[in-house]
């Protein structure tokens, strides 16, 4: 039940993540009308006139372009800012109550976007997406934290992958209901955006049925009896002595190790290798080119010659979901490192194939099938490893002390790179044209080499064993001991 509630949390967030291209054109028209820079009449005059009196499409006007770009970008900015608050919110009232508290943000965002016609649509939508981004930045950290703390060690990877599964299900749902004959039309688009807050209402009724994290109750609050009750709610009638003993040892270790602040973690040389790996894993997820596929897949399919590109984009969402399920089945068997290497290497090959297909599709009609197949395979390889694994591997790389700070930094890195790709890809695409995915192929090759050389396998290992891998061959100096003592006494924000 707890895992179902976690999925509900992420569905609430991801339903507001993607706005497909057909819906964006509808919204741009309303932006143009609200700003007073476009109307159907001026569009007709522009089409019939040889002089550049107006714009045939609302999205061509600079003011509309600016406000629409801000509507897209503000979501990631909100996530970047709130990612630093994950540890604070999670520890304030607990993981479950923390997720319950932030629901008000999702509901407020849904109302702002759903009622946008009552005032200026561009201001209301931008405000709503900013609040929704802030909400998603929090839940993107709280959900993996909660799942990681309640998951049995043998299924830690598979259950951690459920976070990504919820994301892709949310994207698929938004693509389907965004079709023009469903909600993606001139009359219903505010309802489409407003529905992003609906799962939060459902979640507010269901989350109280979830038990609080036993590790939070025992290790952070010292409430053994409440932790015991929570274990019984999670696992049914059984003897929790073994689990409680494991938590007791973890609590003793946590008491000896101070909670490391974000600034201290950045400055620390003791955790530098782990932090570098965590950040590179998240960078490999976002700079792989996957968001270029998600954000602009409809345009890419149209260029490839697909008659109904929006349905091909939905097909990408279906493949997305199927191969995330494959990752759930394989991650605790094949391992994190292996699946990430296979995923990144496969994506690199697909990026090259996609480039070849786009380059020669004008000369050979069958090349359109090459580029389309490359897109589907690209998404498949992404969901096998690079998509789900970065979200939960950070918690495996760090012990109790620096873990909250590391999750915050990794989350900020993820949202920042998401923002950069979303803002720069149209310009990169204009600059490189059909060779745009060669850039991603080079990046993917670099990430593959880095992970092969620097990332250890964490499957089935304890935190001490993982730390030993990073410090293998590195002589412990008096400077390290001094630095650890300084970290314990640090009070940096």
From TrEMBL:
It is a multi-pass membrane protein. This is Glucose transporter 2. Belongs to the major facilitator superfamily. Sugar transporter (TC 2.A.1.1) family. The keyword rRNA-binding does not apply. Residues 1-16 form the signal peptide. GO terms for molecular function: D-glucose transmembrane transporter activity. GO terms for biological process: D-glucose import; dehydroascorbic acid transport. The chain crosses the membrane at residues 65-88, 100-120, 126-147, 159-183, 189-210, 275-298, 310-331, 338-360, 366-384, 405-428, 434-453. The keyword Lipid metabolism does not apply. Coiled coil: none annotated. The gene is GLUT2. It is found in: Membrane. Residues 1-459 form the Major facilitator superfamily (MFS) profile domain. Pfam families: Sugar_tr. It comes from Lateolabrax maculatus. GO terms for cellular component: brush border; plasma membrane. Keywords: Membrane, Signal, Sugar transport, Transmembrane, Transmembrane helix, Transport. Its main location: membrane.
